[in-house]
Task: inverse folding
């Protein structure tokens, strides 16, 4: 039984409309807005099925406000965080294999028998149309990573795999933009090379589980119009349910936690020659039933007054 046994097929959006943060339910190319007291999706996530029942009632009323999505500035579905973004590495076999030569010094020869987890800072998060911050003084090796993201809707610890679906609120997309040279500089671990401010778009919607069949979802990343990543989510080495079971082992997951599920093959650093992101590039991440992220890299002063030397 899922969290949405009675409330099905809903895409929730967070956006700015007439200078106010609003929450709505997507219907085609429009959003049906909730009353102005709903300015954030987190209380709805925490409220579970009861809160969603109220959402469904409100958007079905005659006074509900319908607004074109094009007339709103879309926000990240989650904007308040209790902890870092939870992430999964090496969850597509082809991606694991394409990077073997690049990480020869790490002595990781075979796909791990359990998922590889890490975190990244919440200040990375931006909206689905926002510019991705870019500063070549911080890194010279910027990379893209299309990912399916899971939003937890029900708290739990040591969750059995067969019960994991009951803890999922919904899904969205993420682009886990990475700085490969920072990863190498800091011992090959991922935190620093994936935690630069303003670099990870998420969204565009928060899609409830009954809205999408993960077995049919195709995940893609396009750079300046060219498809560079293209895979089925079903190719993941560890399913979403297995990831939740493993991650929650002795560790509490809470409503609003975001879990990235890994990226497929085709990332830039593993290509010959490497394909690296540059100022002005447009990156699109899209997936069946989940919409798309569309972002351009924009020059931002991330270096500031730092006295760190990357030489």
Result:
């Amino acid at each position: 039984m899922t969290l949405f046994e009675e409330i099905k097929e809903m895409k929730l959006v967070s956006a700015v409309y007439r200078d106010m943060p609003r929450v709505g339910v997507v219907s085609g190319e429009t959003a049906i807005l909730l009353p102005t007291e709903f300015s954030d999706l987190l209380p709805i996530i925490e409220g579970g099925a009861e809160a969603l029942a109220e959402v469904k009632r409100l958007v079905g009323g005659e006074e509900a406000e319908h607004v074109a999505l094009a007339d709103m500035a879309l926000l990240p579905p989650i904007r308040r965080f209790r902890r870092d973004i939870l992430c999964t590495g090496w969850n597509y076999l082809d991606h694991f294999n394409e990077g073997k030569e690049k990480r020869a010094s790490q002595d990781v020869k075979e796909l791990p028998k359990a998922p590889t987890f890490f975190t990244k800072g919440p200040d990375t998060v931006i909206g689905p149309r926002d510019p991705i911050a870019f500063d070549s003084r911080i890194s010279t090796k910027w990379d893209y990573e299309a990912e399916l993201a899971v939003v937890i809707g029900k708290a739990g610890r040591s969750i059995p795999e067969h019960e994991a679906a009951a803890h999922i609120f919904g899904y969205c997309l993420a682009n886990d933009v990475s700085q490969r040279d920072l990863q190498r500089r800091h011992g090959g671990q991922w935190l620093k090379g994936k935690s630069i401010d303003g670099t990870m778009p998420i969204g565009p919607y928060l899609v409830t589980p009954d809205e999408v069949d993960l077995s049919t979802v195709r995940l893609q990343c396009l750079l300046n119009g060219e498809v560079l990543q293209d895979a089925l989510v079903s190719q993941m080495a560890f399913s979403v349910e297995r990831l939740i079971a493993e991650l929650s082992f002795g560790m509490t997951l809470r409503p609003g936690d975001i879990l990235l599920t890994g990226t497929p093959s085709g990332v830039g650093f593993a290509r010959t020659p490497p394909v690296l992101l540059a100022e002005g590039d447009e990156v699109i991440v899209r997936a069946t039933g989940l919409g798309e992220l569309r972002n351009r890299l924009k020059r931002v002063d991330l270096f500031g007054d730092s006295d760190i030397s990357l030489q």
